[in-house]
Every structure is written in structure tokens, then in C-alpha cells.
Amino acid sequence: MALKALLNRFFNPRWIASVRLEEKLEHAITPAIEAMGFDLWGLEFISAGRHSTLRVFVEKDGGITVDDCAKVSHQVSAILDVEDPISGAYHLEVSSPGMDRQLFKPVHFTLYQGQVVQVRTVTDILGRRRFKGELLKVDAQQIELEVDGEIYTIAFDQIEKATLVPKF
What we know:
The protein is α+β, with helices and mostly antiparallel strands. The chain contains 4 helices and 8 strands, in the order H-H-E-E-H-E-H-E-E-E-E-E.
């Protein structure tokens, strides 16, 4: 069953199209966001028919204000209106990554090595898909987490979603 789930995940045309769409979107909007003095932390497209959502996360030194989000939203909206990479209706949301920021790229994991993260995997790893623990090690292909005294090695291509767990 795990093999079938893995094959469905990696050879599912809808998932592949979603990854390609996010890459196209990132390529289209990054130059404008950077020209405005912001960094694109990441983006995600949640396909849900007429209720689809494109979330764009931006940051800059000193933090992001609501006005910053509005400026970026206006610029990104104009680019997407011209490029039109998304078929159908969608909602655009622009925000800071927040304290519980999603980790999109290997460099994001490196920035938070030693911190607690939550990870959801594509398929089961040793009988589980959800992990919450200290991020011990990061390299080009994988991460190491300590969860309840056990060490788990998770390849980046197995990570469905990962977020930082904020300290209060």
C-alpha cells in the first residue's frame, strides 16, 4: 500500500502540475518583489475550484506591515493578470511568514537548525507521517529530527509540509 501511495504522489499529474505552477509563479513574481525591497519567503497554491488560494509569503529586515502586504499584493496581482498562469478564479493572500513559518526550501531548514519543527511527510516513515521535534541536522538531501528521543532522517522529497514551532 505504501508503494502505491508513493507512486500516486510522485506520478500524479495533478500534483506535478501544482509543483510546476508554483515554480512558474515564483519565477514570475520574485523579481518584482525583490525590486520592492522584499524577499519572497515562499508561496503555496491551494487548488479548490472557485475557492482556490494563492498564498505569497514575503519578508524584509525589520518586519512586514499591513501596508507592505497591500503593496506587494497590488504588484503581484498586476503581474498575474498579465502572465495569467492560473486558470480559473482564485484568492490572493500576501502576508509575512509569521512566527510559525512554513519551511519551503533547504536553506529555510538550515536557518532554524536546533529549533523545534513540525513535519508532515508524503508517505509513512517508520509507521508515521507527522513529526514534531528538534531539527538536528540539515544537508542538501535531507533533515534529521529528534522526536521523543528517536532520530528520524527525512529526505526533502518526502516532506509534504514543514513549519517552525514558535517559542513563547
